[in-house]
Design brief:
This protein is an alpha+beta fold. The protein has 14 helices and 28 strands. Helix content is 35%, strand content 30%. Strands 1, 2, 3, 4, 10 and 11 form a six-stranded mixed beta sheet that branches. Helix 2 crosses helix 3. The C terminus is likely disordered. It binds adenosine-5'-diphosphate and magnesium ion.
Length: 564
């Protein structure tokens, strides 16, 4: 039975399936590829989904809901007429519509799906997405990060060319920028950034306001229906400008016709603030991944707003790179989710592709700052670490004759522990330790299924464990036990790996033994090696490992010919 891939978007949703060695998108009951993510109730109390609901957004605001993806995993409720809905329930109605429409095309029931979610979605929001799926009658074992899905669609089309890619996803109300590395058919997300208050609707609003002011229309004089009509025309005008240089808006209000000519230059002028905000997440993500834009293999544009020629031109201007143009921005994520679904059902053609995931948040413990005595976060697993990962850190006594430690684990980015989400704690007795003496080593191991294992080893060699299973984990006890077993055997993060430590020790010894030029060369290469270890990208680690190893071999008089 087919597993479908679903792009459950903030503005639009769609589905695709792996069929005869290809990912194929489904058309819905109206023959459209995109189904607006809007839900409403009509005058007879019936549920409306998709395009019909979207049409009524402005005319029947109290009976229609949209953009509920933003509230997934929160307590927010939506009141439509006399009924109340959670964001999960609204999403489940969209998923059910997508599922039923796809079943009509396939001619068979669909029971399972892979759904894409933003890479930064935390645990609660991933859990909410899975719940929405189960309410709609779909089994969802795996979610796929949207940028990974987009990259997968790109790589499937272009062949799996090794390299680092930037994915820019500009949708209706959000902008997500990610850096993805693909090596030997293994895909890794290196960094994610974005702005969740920037999207296509900002252009619609700019055109709407421009139309009103150019025609000297006061918004207060308009009925809801008239506002809706102008707003819709503003969006149509923006979409038309993606294909034609000039377009005219024309609206009839109270027997008077108002018009406006629009071109892309005017659009850029009236929405310059939107353009200015695009740059900062692009800069941030390159910085986080420590990568130069010139080193990218390609820039992949997805999301409806990337169909605007002004957007691709702007991205080309700021990056100096021509983004790829042969991927359909509307369907890339759904196609990627379908490819992943195909991999999940072990299709022969896809058996070699492996996908890794990142931890979208940091994990750490609360510690006392030795200078200020404030309680602050010490991050053990930094955000954007590749999963599964295992890292450890040593901790020192804060008072003399300390005989116990309280280790509280948190998830989040704030330096103040109470601003983050507390996951649990361990209270441990230990041998009396003098102030500043080594008291314990704490190891955190985290995997893609949301299983966090904390292992604390005190100086007397005793170990204390705690495992925290995330809310979004739907595995059986037996499956969890199997994962825990695997995780406990997991090798440590690259920084802690034996061979890497050995090479660092060798380099440090070589630095002591050499002088001038050679010393400088090893020092610089060692620093670069440590930097890539911290980042955790296996391909870069391999390259730098070989470079440093080759350099020391050469200085030691051993020539393996490996030096680059
Ligand atoms: P989301 O990821 O938020 O669900 P999409 O990726 O479907 O959304 O993008 C929706 C946005 O793309 C809307 O603001 C829509 O107006 C815009 N859009 C769709 N097609 C075009 C086009 N041809 N030109 C410009 N904007 C477009
Ligand atoms: Mg999207």
């Amino acid at each position: 039975m087919a597993i479908i891939g679903i792009d459950l978007g903030t503005t639009n949703s769609l589905a695709a399936v792996w069929k005869d060695g290809q990912p194929v998108v489904f058309k819905n009951s109206l023959g459209d590829i995109l189904t607006p993510s809007a839900v409403g109730i009509d005058d007879n109390g019936e549920i409306l989904c998709g395009k019909v609901a979207r049409e009524r957004l402005i005319t029947h605001p109290s009976m229609t809901a949209a953009e509920f993806k933003r509230s997934m995993g929160t307590d927010r409720k939506y009141t439509l007429g006399t009924s109340t809905f959670t964001p999960e329930q609204l999403s489940s109605l969209i998923l059910r519509k997508i599922k039923e429409d796809a079943e009509k095309v396939l001619g068979e029931p669909i029971e399972e799906a892979v759904i894409s979610v933003p890479a930064y979605f935390d645990d609660a929001r991933r859990f909410a997405t899975k719940q929405a799926a189960s309410m709609s009658g779909l089994k969802v074992e795996r979610l796929i990060n949207e940028p990974s899905a987009a990259a997968l669609a790109y790589l499937h089309k272009h062949g799996f060319v090794d390299g680092t890619y930037m994915v820019i996803d500009f949708g209706g109300g959000t902008l997500d920028v990610s850096i993805i590395d693909s090596f030997d058919s293994v895909m890794e997300i290196l960094a994610v950034s974005g702005n969740n208050a920037l999207g296509g609707k900002d252009f619609n609003e700019a055109i709407y306001n421009h139309f009103l002011s150019a025609n000297e229309i006061l918004p207060d004089t308009l009925t809801d229906e008239q506002k809706a009509m102008i707003y819709k025309m503003a969006e149509d005008c923006k979409i038309a400008l993606s294909d034609t240089p000039l377009t005219m808006m024309s609206v009839n209000i109270n027997d008077k016709t108002y018009t406006l000519m629009m071109d892309n230059n005017t659009l850029i002028k009236i929405s310059h603030e939107v353009f200015e905000k695009i740059l900062s997440p692009i800069k941030q993500v390159l910085r986080d991944a420590r990568i130069n834009v010139a080193d990218l293999e390609d820039i992949i544009l997805v999301g409806g707003s990337c169909k605007m020629p002004t957007i691709s031109a702007y991205i080309e201007k700021v990056t100096g790179r021509k983004p790829c143009t042969d991927i359909n921005p509307d369907t890339a994520i759904a196609l990627g989710a379908a490819i992943f679904a195909g991999m999940k059902s072990r299709n022969e053609e896809l058996k070699d592709i492996v996908m890794t995931d990142i931890c979208p948040f940091s994990l750490g413990i609360a510690v006392e700052d030795s200078r200020t005595h404030e309680i602050i976060m010490d991050f053990i697993i930094p955000r954007n670490s590749m999963l599964p990962t295992s890292r450890r850190k040593s901790y020192y006594a804060v008072s003399d004759n300390q005989t116990s430690v309280r280790i509280q684990f948190f998830q989040g980015e704030s330096i103040i522990p109470s601003n983050n989400t507390k996951l649990g704690e361990l209270l441990i007795n230990c041998p009396a330790t003098p102030k500043h003496g080594l008291i314990d080593t704490t190891k955190m191991t985290y995997d893609i299924n949301g299983i966090l294992m904390v292992e604390v080893e005190t100086v007397d060699g005793k170990t204390h464990n705690k495992t925290i299973i995330s809310k979004s984990n739907r595995m059986s006890e037996a499956e969890i036990a199997r994962c825990q077993e695997q995780l406990s055997k997991l090798t440590l993060a690259p920084t802690d790996k034996e061979e890497n430590r050995l090479l660092i020790a060798r380099a440090e010894r070589a630095i002591e033994e050499t002088l001038s030029f050679e010393r400088e060369a090893i020092t610089q290469t060692l620093l670069a090696f440590k930097a890539v270890l911290e980042k955790g990208n296996s391909r870069e680690i391999r390259i730098m490992y070989n470079r440093l190893n080759g350099l020391i071999d050469k200085i030691d008089g051993i020539d393996t010919g490996l030096i680059e």
